[in-house]
Design goal:
This protein is an alpha/beta fold. The chain has 13 helices and 13 strands. The protein binds nicotinamide-adenine-dinucleotide and zinc ion (ZN).
């Protein structure tokens, strides 16, 4: 087992561990025996009912009282109107501030459970047990929680750090290739913005990682978590500009998700295309040499994701960027690249630049 310690904002007081390894769900009893609490509520993805049972048994072994709710997962499970019944269950089960919420599932379960934990009784502890690659390397780290409003995704949210994160790599074994690629995309994002050597590692071993070979998967997972933990340590609330860098691929990615009503792409798949578009924008805006763009794009375009839907146009993407949380004074802050492993922020991207980037990506798509 490997452990990365996250110190949000550099504060040792709120430090928490992220453990990565096999069989961690069963070992939860060890942690549970060491903390002052005796009541838990597990919010789990309905697909993971068996694992929820295992987690419940582990906590019961540590003499905790445990209740659970299974949630049918899709992006719409994060609709703020749909999470209300979960608060009702917590009240009915007499959950108090000393109790602990467990999030067993992917980013959807993590985001909504973290949000409930941050708002119920003005805040209670929560433990993340992320079950997708994307959640293990990204969404479960850093304390960003949130739910969706009909006018936009994650518009209602808060920063609420977990007390512990258990990345049990056994959970990943049932993950579809689409969800593995989706998580891999967030790893690539971290490498392209912060670490060229890590990018090269990911390119070299991408097949082994996507096949979940522990030798490469564990290294890649731990490394991505380490990089993200480092950012959260320096800029917990996205104030200094550092954490914003992690939004590379996301301005276009969110616009793609929104234009396709969150039904066509997994989050990481949209981010993958978003990175390709933002790399093209980096060339158009004069930050990145074309040869570097092409080399990365030649790799990214080999990763299997669904085809771009026919009716999708750059115009729809531009509309999608206007609700982006990164909009400041009407200008969209794009995170672009000036080199592999080096990001730059640019708020001068025009609508016609986006159209040109779209054309560049389609042209690259059509050349082998
Ligand atoms: N808070 C953050 O910092 C942050 C960062 C990135 C993404 N997100 C959010 O995370 C969400 C996307 O996360 P995700 O991709 O994990 O989505 P998800 O939770 O919808 O999971 C993807 C799919 O995998 C299934 N699944 C989960 N665990 C499984 C397992 N072990 N085996 C088989 N199938 C399994 C789910 O049922 C679902 O169908 C989005 O809502 C996004 O906004 C949040
Ligand atoms: Zn993301």
């Amino acid at each position: 087992m490997e452990t990365v310690v996250v110190t949000p904002g550099g504060s040792d007081k709120r430090a928490y561990s992220v453990h990565v390894g096999a069989g961690l769900v069963e070992k939860t009893s060890e942690w549970a025996s060491s903390v002052e609490a005796s009541q838990a509520f597990i919010i789990a993805d309905a697909r993971l009912a068996k694992n929820a049972q295992k987690l419940s048994q582990a906590l019961t072994k540590a003499k905790w009282k445990v209740d659970r709710a299974l949630v049918k997962v899709s992006e719409s499970a994060k609709d703020y109107r749909k999470i209300f019944p979960l608060y009702t269950k917590l009240i009915e089960k007499n959950m108090d501030r000393h109790s602990v919420l467990f999030a067993l599932g992917g980013g959807v379960i993590g985001d909504l459970t973290g949000f409930i934990a941050g708002s119920y009784l003005r805040g209670m502890r929560w433990v993340g047990v992320p079950s997708t690659l994307l959640a293990q390397v990204d969404s479960s780290i850093g304390g960003k929680t949130g739910v969706n409003h009909p006018l936009g995704k994650n518009l209602i949210g808060l920063f609420h750090q977990p007390s512990l994160v258990l990345c049990d790599t056994d959970l990943l074994q049932t993950l579809s290739l689409r969800d593995r690629v989706s998580g891999f995309a967030e790893m690539v994002k971290v490498s392209l913005t912060f670490d060229k050597a890590f990018y090269e590692f990911l390119v070299q071993h991408h097949q082994s990682i996507l096949q979940l070979e522990p030798k490469y998967l564990d290294v890649a997972v731990v490394e991505t978590i380490r990089q993200k933990a480092d950012v959260v340590c320096q800029d917990e609330f996205e104030r200094t500009g550092l954490r914003q860098i992690l939004n590379f691929g996301h301005t276009m990615g969110h616009a793609l998700e929104s234009a396709t009503e969150y039904r066509h792409f997994r989050h990481g798949e949209a981010v993958l295309l978003g990175m390709r578009l933002e790399m093209a924008l980096s060339v158009i805006r004069g930050h990145l040499p074309h040869t570097k763009y092409q080399a990365v794009d030649d790799f990214l375009k080999t990763l299997p994701i669904p085809k771009i839907p026919k009716g999708l146009t750059p115009k729809k993407l531009v509309t999608g960027t206007k609700h982006d949380k990164k909009v400041k004074d009407g200008k969209v802050n794009y995170v672009l690249l000036e080199d592999i492993g080096k990001a730059v922020v640019d708020n001068q991207v025009s609508d016609s630049d986006v159209t040109q980037a779209w054309k560049m990506m389609i042209a690259s798509e059509n050349t082998l």
